[in-house]
């Protein structure tokens, strides 16, 4: 199994991109600077931050102070601006150990943080705690600060903030022997911060992560702190974020602004944008080689040797063939490790799907999660003494993720109930198909993307037509609605459930017939299976398959009818076709 945490080890050939950022951060004439590391969730932004930090420390860390700020960690517990200031003040305090003069000055920064909190960021809470009416001063104070943030410090904005700040002081909300307005506190913090950093003769680099996971208010507050408080000499910010999420936060925070303003806001904050490189087929292949080497318990030094060799191979891939898996095994001294060799064979088969599928799209986090699902199911199979090859499990997990829930449900239903499954799959796997035949479930042909994926997936080893996949249905039950896998049903009840799920009319003779074949005790689990199937529906304007089957079951068993009634009462709208089916039912009244 693999943990979903960032790593300072470069598994994805980020070295060239990280070196570009490090060169900028090490250049004094580039400071102050802000660098944006942009990419989708799971693309490796946090790991790239760790790699940059590692290189910084290796190339001259003695002259640099590094601060790591997880914006998401403070959400709901503190004002984001004050939290960032406090984390930086703490770092300066630690760096000043041994120099008593500077050390004592760092405590002024902590005091400034508290005063900034009090002078506008949490005044409302102070007032309420003391029972003091604010008379609109809080909103005016926040407005004054926001005006400075949005438009910079000019004569009008400064005077307005001073007037509001003096009103707050006179009101008694703030009691301190040093009475200063918000802009004065901000300026003093900037001055003291700059002086301490200059006397320490160090640069400060602030790595900000997970800002795109924050609520809009917290995200913007963190960006404001970066721009207003700390954009000073010898300071650099490196921010990892999903651009689209930040722009969404800007649009939410600054209501009524246009798309151009959302783009301009981020462009003004981020001087140098760097995008996480897209992981292609070769990168995913190398990533899988390394992940499986770690999971196999290979010595760390050998894994590092492989990483370096793979990185070199990727950098030369524009004119050289990629590293062969046999060469990777030699580096790991694993030529006789049959299990690892089989795993690397599998990597060469699945890497193209991981890299090109529009659902996975080479996303390292998704890849790792899929591998973890495979390992979990393999471990369950071993404990249950189920003989099911891990390659088979992998192939089915890929299908679930890329084909979608509806198509996966259809596959498992076909395995579980269709006696002709092996024949259907034998025809699919042993013919060169340009399109899927009509014998496959309709969900497999619902759109061109799904059909194209399934055609490619059918060519993926191993073949399934000669496998007993009933155990795979059992192992997959956590990702499959219960309507397709209900524990304890007899074969006749399973057949009935399969028919009822596809029933469109109450007059269906097939549905009426199968209901006669099941025992009284099985009506409830059959109804539960039908309800789980219906829960997957998101659109009720048209009658879905299975609803008529559920009504038939309700007509035959009062306890099952109660289950259906509860489900119907939870649907927000009841369209005309539903009312027509249930209006005369005594069990619904």
If you had to describe this structure to a student in words, what would you say it looks like?
The protein has a five-stranded parallel beta sheet, sandwiched between helices. Helix 13 (281-295) packs antiparallel against helix 14 (300-315). The chain contains 28 helices and five strands. Helix 10 links the parallel strand 3 (203-209) and strand 4 (235-241). The protein has helices at residues 15-25, 45-60, 71-74, 80-95, 100-121, 123-130, 137-151, 155-171, 182-200, 216-229, 243-253, 259-269, 281-295, 300-315, 325-331, 338-356, 364-383, 390-403, 405-417, 421-429, 448-458, 470-475, 491-501, 509-516, 523-535, 547-556, 558-569, 576-582; strands at 33-38, 64-70, 203-209, 235-241, 272-275.
Q: What structural keywords apply?
A:
589 residues, mainly alpha, five-stranded parallel sheet, 28 helices, 60% helix, globular
In brief:
With 589 residues, the chain is mainly α. 60% of the residues lie in helices and 5% in strands.
Rg over alpha carbons: 31 Å
Shape summary? globular
N-to-C span: 52 Å
Biggest sheet overview: 5 strands, parallel
Mean pLDDT: 76
Strand line-up in the sheet with most strands: 2-3-4-1-5
Strand content: 5-15%
How many DSSP-defined strands? Answer: 5
Uncertain segments of ≥5 residues (pLDDT<50)? 120-146, 148-155, 171-177, 479-485
Structural class: mainly alpha
Number of helices: 28
Helix content: 55-70%
């Amino acid at each position: 199994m693999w943990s979903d945490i960032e790593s300072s080890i470069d598994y994805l050939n980020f070295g060239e991109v990280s070196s570009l950022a490090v060169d900028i951060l090490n250049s004094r004439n580039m400071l102050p600077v802000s660098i944006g590391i942009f990419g989708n969730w799971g693309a490796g932004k946090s790991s790239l931050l760790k790699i940059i930090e590692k290189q910084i420390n290796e190339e001259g860390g003695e002259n640099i102070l590094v601060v790591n700020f997880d914006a998401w960690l403070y959400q709901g517990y503190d004002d984001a601006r004050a939290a960032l200031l406090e984390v930086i003040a703490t770092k300066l305090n630690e760096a000043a150990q041994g120099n008593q003069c500077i050390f004592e000055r760092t405590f002024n920064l902590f005091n400034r943080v508290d005063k900034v909190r009090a002078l506008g960021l949490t005044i409302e809470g102070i007032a309420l705690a003391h029972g003091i009416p604010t008379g609109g001063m809080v909103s005016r104070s926040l407005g004054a600060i926001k005006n400075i943030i949005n438009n910079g410090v000019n004569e009008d904005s400064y005077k307005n903030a001073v007037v509001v700040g003096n009103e707050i002081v006179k009101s008694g909300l703030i009691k301190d022997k040093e009475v200063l307005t918000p802009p004065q506190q901000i300026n003093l913090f900037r001055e003291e911060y700059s002086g301490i950093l200059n006397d320490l003769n160090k640069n400060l680099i602030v790595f900000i992560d997970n800002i795109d996971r924050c609520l809009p208010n917290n995200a913007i507050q963190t960006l404001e702190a970066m721009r207003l408080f700390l954009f000073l000499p010898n300071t650099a910010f490196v921010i990892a974020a999903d651009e689209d999420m930040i722009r969404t936060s800007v649009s939410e925070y600054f209501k009524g602004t246009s798309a151009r303003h959302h783009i301009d806001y981020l462009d003004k904050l981020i001087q140098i944008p760097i995008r996480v490189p897209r992981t292609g087929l070769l990168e995913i292949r190398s990533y899988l080689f390394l992940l499986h080497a770690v999971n196999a318990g290979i010595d760390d030094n050998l894994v590092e040797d492989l990483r370096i060799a793979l990185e070199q191979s990727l950098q030369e891939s524009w004119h050289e063939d990629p590293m062969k898996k046999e060469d990777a095994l030699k580096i790991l001294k694993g030529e006789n490790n049959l299990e690892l060799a089989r795993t690397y064979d599998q990597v060469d088969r699945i890497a193209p799907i991981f890299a090109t599928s529009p659902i996975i799209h080479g996303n390292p986090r998704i890849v790792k999660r899929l591998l973890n699902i495979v390992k979990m199911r393999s471990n369950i199979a071993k404990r249950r003494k189920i003989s099911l090859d891990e390659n088979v499990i992998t192939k089915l997990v890929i299908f679930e993720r890329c084909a979608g829930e509806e198509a996966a449900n259809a596959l498992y239903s076909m395995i579980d109930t269709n006696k002709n499954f092996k024949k259907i799959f034998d025809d699919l796997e042993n013919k060169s198909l340009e399109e899927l035949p009509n014998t496959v479930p309709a969900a497999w042909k619902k759109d061109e993307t799904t059909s194209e994926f399934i055609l490619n997936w059918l060519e993926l080893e191993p073949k399934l037509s000669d496998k007993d996949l009933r155990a795979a249905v059992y192992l997959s039950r956590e990702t499959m609605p219960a309507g397709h896998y209900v524990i304890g049903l007899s074969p006749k009840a399973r057949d009935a459930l399969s028919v009822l799920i596809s029933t469109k009319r109450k007059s269906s003779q097939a549905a009426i017939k199968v209901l006669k074949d099941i025992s009284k005790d099985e009506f409830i689990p059959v109804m539960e299976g039908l309800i789980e199937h219906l829960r997957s529906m998101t659109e009720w304007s048209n009658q879905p398959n299975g609803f008529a089957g559920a009504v038939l079951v309700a007509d035959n068993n009062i306890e099952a009818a109660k289950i259906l009634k509860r489900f119907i009462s939870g649907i927000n709208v009841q369209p005309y076709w539903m009312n027509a089916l249930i209006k005369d039912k005594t069990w619904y009244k």
